[in-house]
Specification:
The strands form 17 sheets. Strands 5, 6, 7, 8 and 9 form a five-stranded mixed β-sheet that branches. A five-stranded mixed β-sheet has the order 12-11-10-18-15, with no helix packed on it. Helices cover 4% and strands 45% of the residues. It contains three helices and 53 strands. A hairpin with a 4-residue loop joins β26 and β27. The chain is mainly β and 737 residues long. It has eight domains: 70 residues, no CATH class; 92 residues, Roll (Ubiquitin-like (UB roll)), CATH 3.10.20; 91 residues, Immunoglobulin-like (Sandwich), CATH 2.60.40.4300; 76 residues, Roll (Ubiquitin-like (UB roll)); 89 residues, Immunoglobulin-like; 76 residues, Ubiquitin-like (UB roll), CATH 3.10.20; 96 residues, Immunoglobulin-like; 91 residues, Ubiquitin-like (UB roll).
């Protein structure tokens, strides 16, 4: 409204006043304080001076006297908008991968942008944030060196125009450095492609430097200057000629391809000579000439020639070729020469002549007195050779380590005398016959004594003397005398004669003595005493708590003898393998405790009586608990705490229940740890009739019983009235008619 005297600041002030008085919600603003939507009561009376009032109209100037005009403005929700945009100062365009970020808020509220995590500015350099929608204008720059540090201020009061901010970035760059190697490789090969010499490889390196735009990937760089591979002379290889004497120099740059060249070597002519030599005569048997090229196989071996000479009875001495196929070398100046050496095969021949000496030792009756003695044979030998090529034999002289038989003393034969004490030394030659001699032995006088001895008393009972010659039978045995003593209750201990007829020995220095040992016949006698141990395990009422334990019996024994010659008895001491009963641990009886943990080890003597011990078991103290569970509310009843009772193993369980369960329905009692376990229900239709059984025998775990109840119910009936009252009032609260 042109020149209308009611300014926008007054309109906004009036709005604030109404909002403060709660007449208008705080989150509303005037859409446009400069543009009223309507003027009410635009017609007025004249000024007192008679000046006419003009009618107030929208968008027109009028002179009016303000006496109650009403201006109507449009109210809208107080919602402000702000936008953050992202601009690339390098490419002079908004960043496509970072769309605008839009936020809303209320006037005077802080502006804060949340940058999406997917926006990646790691390849950009932050420059600034400026207010306004023109990226070429940066006069209104916001403070902050990083995007996260920018303070965007507060939302303004203009709902018709958004606040726009532009974040400016430039591209980050990185240094670029690279190298490129170009190689020259020269291969040296034979005509068959096999390597002739190590490759020669040279390498030059080019360097690239510059920068790379991290956003666009664009690179600005330069390579180093061109380089040269120098001339390369082909190496000498003995026996071969290269097809290229040298590789020329060449210039390359960073974009050149690797260079590969090949030099091929051709083989030169070569010669081999093989000589077959007879070392026995010193003459050359034959020669073989071979022609070819460097390192070429000749296709020839000495095998066939050697086989041929061996068939003629030659022996191979040495073969320079080692029997392998000959290969031409690469020495152009000297021919290869190989020698194969042979010798005449010589077969060893020999001859032997052995002369034996035998000495016989006999008694006068011609029987052998001592084993024959064979003297060490005298052996004559000669050796020689037969040339298998010429078939001629060559003998050496006869040889012998010893050409005589030693003197041999006649062996001593106890009880006999030889007719020759020594056979004298005898010398022989390779043409002599075997030597045989005989020595005859005559018997000497001998004596035998037989003693019968009582070993029990140590006295000699009788003696028998016998006389004769060496190795002659005496005609006497101990049989009759032993039979006589056995009849007197003597036992034969030993008989040196073994019960056979005695024969005179041939010991001239010591007479033969034979002892027959006898003892009084002793009859074994014995006695035994057994002591038993019994342990009883009983309850306090005398009933059996556990089976009796019988200890391993202790057995004492003694033995002795009765002399059947004198009829006297002789007893030894009592003996036993074990003279005590082991400690016995009292057995565990569930729910009971023994008065002693163990019966200790008990030592006994053969004069003791049987052992009897008793262990008494007392019942253990036991506990039981009765709990009360509400199946309706699924919890234990707080007003009925657990009841505990005590007793002893196997005694009846009983509970004294002091609680009132008149408002509950009894369901059942279960033997269980948790209320959900109803697998072990006890007998009894009412709580006072439940049979809890007996205390168990586990003193380490209490027995738990849970009584289950549900709530009793009763019918309920009631009424409730609901009214509706409507009050009609004015804005000031006074009642309307």
């Amino acid at each position: 409204m042109g020149h209308y005297n009611y300014g926008t600041d007054k309109v906004l002030a009036a709005l604030k006043k109404l909002q403060k008085a709660k007449k208008i919600p705080e989150d509303y603003v005037v859409k446009d304080a400069t543009q009223p939507q309507e003027i009410i009561n635009a017609d007025h009376g004249d000024y007192p001076s008679g000046i006419k009032n003009e009618k107030a109209q929208l968008n027109q100037q009028a002179k009016v006297y303000f006496d109650g005009d009403t201006l109507v403005y449009e109210l809208v929700k107080n919602t402000q908008s702000a936008t953050l945009r992202f601009y690339d100062d390098t490419d002079h365009e908004f960043i496509e991968l970072a769309p605008d970020v839009n936020i809303t808020g209320k006037s005077d509220a802080d502006i804060s942008f949340e940058i999406p995590a997917k926006y990646d500015f790691s390849k950009y350099q932050f420059v600034m944030v400026a207010r306004g929608n023109d990226p070429t204008q940066s006069n209104d720059k916001l403070a902050g060196n990083q995007l996260s540090e920018i303070n965007y201020g507060k939302f303004d009061n203009d709902i018709n125009e958004d606040q726009i901010f532009i974040a400016h970035f430039t591209h980050k760059t990185a240094l670029v450095k690279d190298t490129k190697a170009v190689t020259e490789t020269v291969h040296y090969v034979y005509e068959n492609g096999i390597k002739a010499h190590d490759d020669v490889q040279k390498e030059v390196t080019f360097t690239k430097t510059g920068t790379k735009d991290l956003v666009t990937g664009e690179e600005k760089s330069n390579w180093s200057k061109s380089q040269e591979f120098e001339e390369l002379v082909s190496p000498d290889i003995a026996g071969y000629t290269p097809d290229k004497e040298k590789i020329n120099s060449v210039t390359v740059s960073h974009d050149s391809k690797d260079i590969v060249k090949t030099v091929t070597y051709k083989a030169n002519p070569q010669k081999i000579v093989v000589n077959y030599i007879d070392d026995t005569t010193g003459k050359t048997l034959s020669t073989k000439d071979l022609n070819g090229k460097s390192d070429e196989s000749s296709g020839y071996t000495t095998s066939d020639s050697i086989t041929s000479y061996k068939a003629q009875n030659y022996d191979l001495v040495s073969d320079d070729t080692k029997g392998v196929e000959l290969v031409f070398d690469h020495d152009d100046k000297v021919d290869q020469v190989y020698h194969v050496h042979f010798a005449h095969h010589m077969t060893s021949i020999s001859d032997t002549k052995t002369i034996y000496e035998t000495i016989h030792y006999v008694y006068e009756d011609g029987k052998t007195a001592s084993p024959d003695v064979a003297g060490m044979p005298v052996v004559f030998t000669r050796d020689g050779e037969r040339d298998e090529v010429t078939n001629k034999e060559h003998w050496n002289d006869w040889k012998s380590e010893k050409d005589n038989f030693d003197a041999v003393n006649s062996p001593e034969i106890l009880g006999y005398t030889p007719d020759f004490a020594t056979i004298e030394k005898i010398k022989v030659g390779p043409k002599d016959l075997d030597v045989v001699r005989t020595v005859t032995y005559k018997a000497n006088p001998q004596k035998i004594t037989v003693n019968y001895i009582d070993d029990t008393t140590g006295k000699t009972l009788s003696t028998k003397d016998l006389n004769g010659k060496s190795d002659e039978s005496s005609g006497y045995t101990t049989s009759d005398s032993i039979t006589s003593y056995k009849a007197q209750n003597y036992d034969l201990v030993s008989d040196d004669t073994k019960g056979v007829e005695l024969v005179f020995d041939h010991n001239d220095k010591v007479d033969q003595v034979y002892n027959v040992h006898l003892t009084h016949h002793m009859t074994s006698i014995g006695d035994t005493k057994t002591i038993h141990e019994t342990i009883h395990y009983v309850y306090e009422d005398g009933k059996t708590a556990s089976p009796d334990v019988a200890g391993m019996p202790v057995v004492f024994s003694r033995d002795g003898e009765r002399d059947e010659v004198t009829n006297k008895e002789h007893w030894n001491d009592w003996t036993t393998k074990k003279d005590s009963f082991d400690k016995v641990q009292s057995p565990e009886v569930a729910g009971y405790t023994p008065n002693v943990d163990a019966i200790p080890e008990i030592k006994v003597k053969p004069t003791d009586s049987d052992i009897v011990r008793t262990v008494t078991y007392k019942a253990d103290a036991q506990k039981a608990k009765l709990r009360f569970y509400d199946d309706t509310d699924h919890k234990f009843i707080e007003l009925a705490p657990d009841i505990n009772t005590t007793g002893k193993s196997a005694e009846s369980i009983d509970f004294d229940i002091p609680y009132d369960f008149s408002n509950y329905n009894f369901i059942e009692v279960d033997s269980a740890e948790v209320p959900t376990d109803k697998s072990n229900k006890l007998n009894g239709d009412t709580l006072d009739k439940v049979i809890y059984g007996r205390f168990d025998k586990d003193k380490n775990a209490d027995q738990v019983f849970i009584a289950h109840f549900t709530h009793k119910t009763a019918p309920v009936k009631d009424t409730k009235k609901v009214t509706e009252t409507v009050h009609y009032v004015y804005e000031d609260g006074t009642k309307s008619s």
